[in-house]
Fold:
Amino acid sequence: MADIVDIAVSADNFKTLVAAVQAAGLVETLKTPGPFTVFAPTDEAFAKLPPGTVQTLVQNPPQLARILKYHVVAGRLTQADLAKVDTVTSVEGSPISIDCTNGFEVKNATVIAADIAADNGIIHVIDNVILMG
Structure:
């Protein structure tokens, strides 16, 4: 098996996420044993942001890192685990709402692929970038 970063790099739909993780200096963190639960936005999710947003964030690594850390939770949480809670706390420190009553929703995003296992955690693919606030 591979770690979270290797899985994202090998997939075709996480090019923006991988570039953002690299720009924010989080590659080494996401290669540690963790474990982590990552809500991973696809390239299409990043494309939904207002024009220029990704470029602006890449030029501001601390802000980019904060947003990316909002997509990560400590621990290995499967969809079944997340269905038992209303919120989880991101490694950034803010709560993320979880709703599994009708599908699998994470704040303003729908999980389009759940429970992708990695050596150091689990990935849930989401269709929107989740924003704090």
Q: What stands out?
A: The longest strand covers residues 109-118. Residues 4-126 form a domain with the FAS1 domain fold (CATH 2.30.180.10).
